[in-house]
């Protein structure tokens, strides 16, 4: 019965976001305790502390682009739009167009890129983030960055990661780009 209800939840997610949930259904059907642990992980991924949605989505979008070339990125884009982040800002996040993001959102996008590249320049930005939102905000951003990377890893490990695709932001199709600047440090 519990598997049936959890599968209904997954199918609702599939319909809501047009997202392939087969890898999650496989976990649910194969190992219920493992799936319940996944649900616990969802609580961590949703943690926001005192950070507004837009900077958190900047972290999630930039982090997911490091590990995914389409479907998971599209899911995060759709969730950002659903959270009322403007399409122009979401587009700027996907394209790493920092000039078209508010300063705090651009800060988080750049920080995310530097963190994922293990670039020591992230240290300066970390201090700026703590000045804006404190240590609790930094933890929320850390959770956004790290948790976003789990989904593509699960999909590809279980054999559900496939062809790359472009990302839709309302009526515009984009090719997600990875910041080359962050890799040099």
Automatic annotation (TrEMBL):
Superkingdom of the source species: Bacteria
InterPro entries tied to this protein: AhpD-like
SUPFAM superfamilies: AhpD-like
Species classification: Bacteria, Pseudomonadati, Pseudomonadota, Gammaproteobacteria, Pseudomonadales
Protein name from the UniProt record: Alkylhydroperoxidase family enzyme, contains CxxC motif
Annotated organism of origin: Marinobacter xestospongiae
């Amino acid at each position: 019965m519990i598997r049936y209800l959890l599968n209904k939840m997954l199918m609702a997610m599939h319909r809501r976001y047009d997202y392939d949930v087969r890898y999650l259904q496989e976990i649910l059907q194969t190992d219920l305790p493992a799936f319940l642990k996944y649900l616990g992980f969802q609580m961590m991924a949703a943690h926001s502390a005192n950070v507004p949605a837009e900077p958190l989505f900047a972290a999630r979008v930039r982090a997911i682009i490091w590990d995914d070339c389409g479907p998971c990125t599209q899911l995060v884009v759709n969730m950002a739009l659903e959270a009322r982040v403007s399409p122009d800002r979401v587009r700027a996040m996907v394209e790493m167009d920092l000039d078209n993001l508010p300063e705090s959102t651009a800060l988080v996008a750049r920080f995310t890129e530097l963190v994922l590249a293990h670039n020591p320049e992230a240290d300066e930005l970390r201090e700026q983030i703590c000045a804006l939102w404190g240590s609790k905000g930094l933890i929320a951003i850390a959770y956004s960055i790290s948790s976003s990377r789990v989904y593509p890893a699960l999909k590809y490990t279980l054999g559900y990661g496939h062809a790359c695709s472009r990302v839709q932001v309302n009526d515009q199709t984009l090719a997600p780009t990875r910041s080359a600047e962050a890799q040099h440090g």
